[in-house]
Amino acid sequence: EGNDAVMLLLNTPDGVSRVHASRRVFEFLKSKEIATPVIHHVVMDAPRDELVLTVGSQVGCSLVDGNGDGILIESPSNELEFVRTTSFGLLQGSRMRNTKTEYVSCPSCGRTLFDLQTVTAEIAEATGHLPGVTIAVMGCIVNGPGEMADADFGYVGGAPGKIDLYVGKELVRKGIPSAEACQGLIDLIKEHDRWVDPAEVEEEEETKVAA
Question: Is the per-residue pLDDT at 208 higher than 90?
């Protein structure tokens, strides 16, 4: 109490449960009414998949509960850009900071009218730079529109080889050929003034980092 720290770095020694230790730390801070920002500090030299899974499971649960203000990952064997992407991905998944497009997708089933994984990857490649935009990619019209949650735009299989496009839960374009649907989605986003060119997003991110 009475400290003038700008922030606190929270780390745990090997062999100690980060989840349980973090909860005890935040319970203590709240009991003492200490509002200093807390950054989860993870030092882990591990393969990419292991790093993502470990950080997501051990830190993500705290962030989702509102315990923590950010994350600092040190992983010498991994490229800085991967560590950066992992950090921002965790913050977005925890609904703390929106830095890229959010996607909602249904699990593939017998009613799916297109290759869900391939199409989702294609859409993500073209639209993944739109922070604040949520896109739903749904395989069929049976459950798709009802499962789009609060997506801003929807890409839904309407018939074999045909795609329906939605704004919110409103169908605005029906029966677009699959080969034209991704571009049709981009055009729809532009019509609603939600499109930003990738170069502009990169420039903005670089300005934030420099600041």
Answer: no
CB neighbour class for 33 (10 Å; exposed up to 12, middle 13-18, buried from 19):
exposed
DSSP the chain: -----S-EEE---TTS-HHHHHHHHHHHHHHTT----EEEEEE----HHHHHHHHHHHTHHHHHTT--SEEEEE-TTS-HHHHHHHHHHHHHHTTS---S-EEEEPPP-TT--S-HHHHHHHHHHHHTT-TT-EEEEES-TTTTGGG-TT-SEEEEEEETTEEEEEETTEEEEEEEEHHHHHHHHHHHHHHTT----HHHHHHHHHHHHH-
pLDDT at 1 over 80: no
- For residue 179, give the amino acid letter: A
Q: Where residue 173 falls among pLDDT bands split at 50, 70, 90?
A: very high
Going by C-alpha positions, the residue among 3, 63, 75 that lies closest to residue 36 is 3
The span from the CA of 187 to the CA of 203, in Å, is: 23
Tokens 């994350």 found at: 71
Measured distance CA(57)–CA(53) in Å, rounded: 6
Smallest Cα–Cα separation from 200: which of 119, 103, 131, 102?
131
Quick check: 101 and 124 in contact, CB under 8 A?
Answer: yes
Amino acid in position 10 = L
